[in-house]
Write a structure and sequence with these properties.
Blueprint (H helix, E strand, L loop, with lengths): L1 H14 L12 H7 L4 H4 L18 H13 L7 H6 L3 H12 L1 E6 L12 H4 L18 H13 L7 H6 L3 H12 L2 E6 L2
Antiparallel strand pairs: 1-2
Helix pairs in contact: 2-6, 4-6, 8-10
The structure holds heme C (2 copies).
One heme C binds next to α7, α8 and α9.
Organism: Tranquillimonas alkanivorans
Keywords: Electron transport, Heme, Iron, Metal-binding, Signal, Transport
GO molecular function: electron transfer activity; heme binding; metal ion binding
Length: 193
């Protein structure tokens, strides 16, 4: 009995974390139907309906799938999203990520880009659109959401090789200032033609 339990626990540890590239190809049309479960909080097009939920329309499919896998496997935790993700299969994660990724996020910056948070612009740009496929958009994310994530990286509740050390050095005042910058950007999300 004890040997069996030890083997089971060891198996879980050895299995390692699933990643987006291990998933089957996603079908955006099938994903649109799954997005019916997401729309109260994220909208059908990925424009968030509540301040604690992020805009996810136009984010790269790989980033979205990785976050859903992290919620499902407990590497990222949230009382709502952990429950939602627990019920999604690999195929459903690939499909719903493909649906939200099949949108275009267009940010409009009213402020002077020279005032943008300098430690962030190399990856998140002044207008909050990520420079590469693994960098999420921050444009128009609520300051509540951005603050929550930066504090989660700082405390170790959410872990990422790039963001954890960056957040570790931020004061509460910097977190508030940077969150307000990205909060104030206008965002439009449209399905791609
Ligand atoms: C009841 C509200 C609710 C529902 C329904 C919901 N979400 Fe979420 N979602 C949230 C909240 C709140 C967060 C932020 C979690 C946090 O603070 O870490 C989030 C975060 C996410 C993230 C992380 C995005 C990022 O920028 O890191 C993804 C991806 C996501 N949700 C996808 C989905 C999908 C796909 C569905 C439907 C299958 C869904 N959510 C349903 C509330 C919801
Ligand atoms: C070297 C590139 C890089 C720099 C510089 C950087 N980030 Fe990030 N950021 C990332 C990556 C990559 C992720 C995705 C982390 C993950 O996959 O969990 C991320 C994620 C985030 C998230 C979570 C977004 C979401 O949708 O959940 C926030 C908030 C964030 N960064 C804010 C900042 C702020 C504020 C700064 C400046 C102090 C900054 N970042 C600097 C690369 C960077």
């Amino acid at each position: 009995m004890r040997a069996a339990l030890t083997r089971a626990a060891g198996g879980v540890l050895l299995a390692g974390a699933a990643a987006a590239q291990d998933l089957p190809p996603g079908d955006p049309e099938a994903g649109r139907r799954i997005a019916g479960q997401c729309r109260t909080c994220h909208g059908i097009d990925g424009y968030a309906q509540i301040p604690i939920a992020p805009h996810i329309g136009g984010e790269p499919a790989g980033y979205l799938a990785d976050q859903l896998l992290a919620f499902r496997e407990g590497r990222r935790e949230h009382e709502m999203m952990s429950v939602v993700a627990a019920n999604l299969s690999d195929q459903q994660i690939a499909d719903v990520a493909a649906w939200y990724a099949a949108h275009e996020a267009v940010a409009t910056l009213a402020a002077d880009p020279a005032d943008a948070p300098q430690p962030c612009v190399a990856c998140h740009r002044a207008d909050g659109i990520g420079v590469t496929e693994d960098v999420p958009n921050l444009a128009a994310e609520s300051n509540i959401y951005i603050e929550t994530q930066l504090k989660a990286f700082r405390s170790g509740k959410r872990v990422h090789e790039v963001m954890s050390p960056i957040a570790a050095d931020l004061s509460d005042a910097e977190i508030r200032e940077f969150a307000d910058w990205y909060n104030d950007i206008a965002l439009d999300i449209q399905p791609m033609e």
